Amino acid sequence: MRKEFPVLLIILLSLFVSKAQNACANEPDSVYLFAYATDKNYNHNGLHFAWSQNRVDWHTIGPEHSFLKNDYGRWGSEKRMLTPFLYRSVDGMWHCVWSLNERDGAFGHSSSPDLIRWGRQSYPPVMNDGNCLSPLITYDDSSGYYTIAWLSEPEGEKRVFSTTTRDFKAYGPTTGSAALPGLRDSAVIAGKSETGTLHRVAWKSVKELITTQQLASYKASLYGETTQSDPERFASLKTVDVLIRADGTRSKEISDLLLGIFYEDINYAADGGLYAELIQNRGFEYSLSDKLGSDKSWNSRKAWRVTNADSFSIDTVAPVHPNNKHYAVMQVDTKGVSLINEGFNGIPVTAGEKYNFSVFARTPESDKGSLIIRLTDKEGNIIGEAQTKKLGSNWKKQEVVLVASKTVTDARLLIEPQLRGRVDLDMISLFPKKTFRGRRNGLRADLAQTLADMKPRFMRFPGGCVAHGDGLENIYHWKNTIGPLEARKPQRNIWGYHQSFGLGYFEYFQFCEDIGAEPIPVIAAGVPCQNSGHHGCALGGQQGGIPMSEMDQYVQDVLDLIEYANGDEKTVWGRKRAEAGHPEPFNLKYIGVGNEDLITDIFEERFTMIYNAVKERYPDITVIGTVGPFFEGTDYVEGWKLADKLNIPIVDEHYYNPPGWYIHNQDFYDKYDRTKSKVYLGEFAAHLPDRASNIETALAEALHLCNVERNGDIVLMTSYAPLLAKEGYTQWNPDLIYFNHNEVKPTVGYYVQQLFGQNSGDEYIYSGIALSSERDDVAKRIAKSIVRDSNTGDVIVKLVNLLPVAVNATIDLSGIGLTERNATKTVLTGSPDDRSAKPVTEEVVMGEKCELPPYSFSVLRIKQSR
Ligand code: AHR
Q1: Catalytic residue among 596, 653, 683, 701
Q2: Amino acid 853: pLDDT
Q3: What is the pLDDT of residue 309?
Q4: Buried-most residue among 409, 525, 641, 653 (CB within 10 A)?
């Protein structure tokens, strides 16, 4: 493991161990160990252990404590562990195999030297047309082969099958077998009969298991601390005095990219969100499969209706573009028939504003009439109208501008053909003229401005899980998202809706340039999301891995992306960028490969191919690797090992932890080895059990960012996740910014991010802190960071007070030679459950005293003229 436990935990642990060692005299040399899983929590609790001296009285090692969890399939419905079978091989290694669910033809495998540290998981696909139940392991000494046997019911009848392996990596063919050996035992544990495997092990090993479980439980109680218990915890606490003294002799250079944004199309962040298109399902490409068939109304007609039901159908015979197969066909027999779009639950328009309407249309009819385009309010009153030119018999783009006469959030768009007979329509679009920076096909101005106001130094896109997708078929391919809108290839969004890709790679690069943020595209590492469904590898789901025969093309696509961003106009892909209106390169410097993937052999093989190819062809591009979804565990450990092995310059860490974790892990990055890979903290947030975003979570995040700033020599970038969420359309909470049709609602956490973004520095100034209280829990709830911004010379002091009492801070900056003392002081404060507090800024003349209100984040920016 790369990390050590915090000092306090080590002391507790060693006390426990030495106490246990003192008691050795009357302890057994060995005991029985029972390995099993229970059906609690829908089999999600993983591998458990119990020990016994006599095989009758069993002692659980933390009831329901998971020593190994199954990582197979989707979060929530999958990741269950059924019928684990534990086996110790001749070399002393423990192997565990288990059934993944009742359905799939694969089993899970992981191994461990000590039952505590478990290695990479694999899910070998052993049955083409059957499930894989109750797997077990036997070993043949003479051949050195392990046999894995299991029950399956390919034709309704349970039969035994088996395969062999030497190394649990390569497996022989599956064959039918005789009866399954009876190698499982049962034991009555906590009054319930459980099935599992029985082992004789050294008592020392069991003690280590007990210590591990107790430490985990102790840590969970620390991390579970919330402000709810502050009234008792700090009942006797009075105002705390602190002295912070800047050390004029010690400073270090830190990253000037520390705060950025993580953009993912989750919670309707793109279509219906940041992407300013007002028409929902403009290309008639919504499909039942977007929602895996769960919503029958989610089809090509979604959001559309017609005033006469018979006159509207969907066709695919001769589309505008093969990537965009579906189009609407209106059969107009009566005058006044209109096709109506409701937008994303209503179309917001503002009186006096202009809206660009466009449509691809054709009609085989001879009179070749035009289309009247109307905006109406809820009552049907016309609040904007325009007429297109006459249609022809071939697809042609028609464009008109509408001016809204009324402000409403729930307008409808109507298209009324001025002809009788058939009219084909596709890519029906309505854009506000006022987009962010006036870009055509641009972004919603208020939302984009809210992002720009954070002063993000980089933007990561397009995800998150969207980047690697739900199974191989759903991987995000950047080439599908560029070029003319009608030629882009929409697809299902892993979060259960539709991606039009109107907001695609060109628009992402353009937006980054517009807000002065480094673009950081993240591409799949040749494997889909670690939470993909589609039943495992055989069917291209989780750990399916792009077939090796297709990997060369995939690697080429990655290289082409760099050429698209940076190549000159003479290059194939640079020319496409120029054709899109941007002849100058976008100056891409970073590329993320992978997103918190399961680190497996399948991943490593593909990641390494991509990494080596980019390094060789574009040595100036910095590749960002990935180390799993948590701050610890197998993917974290294995990801870091791979980073060490390949010398990956930066790795992407993700964690969503409770506020208590941030309070009790303030030295998390202080322990990082400075000679190894740098870190991009690509996804993080403080999560309370009710997933609120309030002052408590915001201050925990501020506290963490103060600690990150101190480690800005190793942590180069951070981004809160997720960024955007449309009210009523969320798949994930909390998010940084909520919005609806016409309002943007930044959370209190947003203001923390914004204050860090607007007050970043590139030099960290060390400082000491002395408190009037000797309590450790008090000290842990105060954080400070002092940085200097070399662009302005300004010195910025950030102070977090997560206590229910005020902190009287004395800030001694005499050591760093300030020339002026005029400052702005910004304070964000409220009760812990406050969700609507806003920062308040005032101009002050810096004295030494500064009061930090209870539960507050204060930023002092001391302006220095140069
Ligand atoms: O931020 C939301 C999701 O959390 C991301 O898509 C994924 O990478 C992570 O699990």
Answers
A1: 596
A2: 98
A3: 74
A4: 525
Q: What separation in Å is there between the alpha carbon of 730 and the centre of ligand 1?
A: 13
On the question of pLDDT at 361 being above 60, the answer is yes
pLDDT mean across residues, the chain: 95
Question: How far does residue 268's CA lie from ligand 1's centre (Å)?
Answer: 14
Amino acid at 27: E
Instruction: For residue 614, give Cα distances in angstroms to 51, 203, 263, 620, 799.
Output: 51, 51, 23, 9, 41
Instruction: Give the residue whose CA is nearest to atom 3 of ligand 1.
Output: 464
Q: Which residues contact 754 (CB under 8 A, 6 or more apart)?
A: 453, 454, 455, 746, 839
pLDDT, residue 535, reads: 54
Residue pLDDT, tens place only, 688-699: 999 999 999 999
| Amino acid at the residue 155 | E
Phi-psi region of 628 (alpha: psi -120 to 50; beta: other; left: phi over 0): left
Distance of CA 169 from the midpoint of ligand 1 (Å): 29
What is the rounded distance in angstroms from the CA atom of residue 110 to the CA atom of residue 10?
Answer: 28
DSSP percent split of the chain into helix, strand, coil, nearest 5: 25, 35, 45
Q: Is the pLDDT of residue 4 over 80?
A: no
Catalytic site residue 596? yes
CA of 369 to the centre of ligand 1 (A): 49
Q: Which residue has tokens 């322990």? A: 671
549 contacts 555 by C-beta, under 8 angstroms: no
Could you identify the atom of ligand 1 that is nearest to the CA of residue 722?
A: 1
Confidence check: pLDDT of 599 > 90: yes
Atom of ligand 1 nearest to the CA of 682: 8
The pLDDT assigned to 6 comes to: 52
pLDDT at position 539 over 70: no
Q: What is the pLDDT of residues 839-854, one digit of tens each?
A: 999 999 988 899 999 9
Model confidence pLDDT, tens digit, residues 82-141: 999 999 999 999 999 999 999 889 999 999 999 999 999 999 999 988 999 999 999 999
The pick from 71, 261, 263, 264 for probing ligand 1's pocket by mutation, whose C-beta has the most ligand atoms within 8 angstroms, reads 264
Atom of ligand 1 nearest to the CA of 721: 1
For ligand 1, the distance from its centroid to the CA atom of residue 629, given in whole angstroms, is: 8
pLDDT band at 156 (very low <50, low <70, confident <90, very high): confident
Atom 1 of ligand 1: nearest residue by CA position: 722
pLDDT of residue 344 exceeding 60: yes
Mean pLDDT of 731-758: 98
Token readout for 724 is 């955007």
**Nearest residue CA, atom 6 of ligand 1?**
464
The DSSP line for 266-313 is: -TTSTBTTTB---STTTTS---GGGGTTS-TT-STTTTEEESSGGGEE
Strands 185-189, 192-202: pairing is antiparallel
Bond prior to 135 in cis (omega within 30° of 0): no
Beta carbons within 10 angstroms of residue 780's beta carbon: 19
Mutate to test the pocket of ligand 1, among 732, 735, 736 (most ligand atoms within 8 A of CB): 732
Looking at residue 540, what is its pLDDT?
A: 56
User: Could you give the count of Cα atoms lying within 13 Å of 320 in the half-sphere of its Cβ?
Assistant: 27
**Residues with beta carbon inside 6 Å of ligand 1?**
264, 266, 463-465, 595-596, 629, 683, 721-722, 732
| pLDDT at residue 180, rounded to an integer | 85
> Does residue 326 register a pLDDT over 90?
yes
Counting ligand 1 atoms within 8 A of each CB, the residue from 495, 499, 683, 730 with the most, and so the one to mutate, is 683
Q: Which residues pair with 417 in a beta bridge?
A: 371
Ligand 1 atom nearest 732 alpha carbon: 2
C-alpha 701 – ligand 1 centre gap (Å)? 17
> What confidence category does residue 3 fall into, taking pLDDT thresholds of 50, 70 and 90?
very low
CA 255 to centroid of ligand 1, rounded, Å:
24
Which of 721, 529, 520, 543 shows the shortest CA–CA distance to 624? Answer: 520
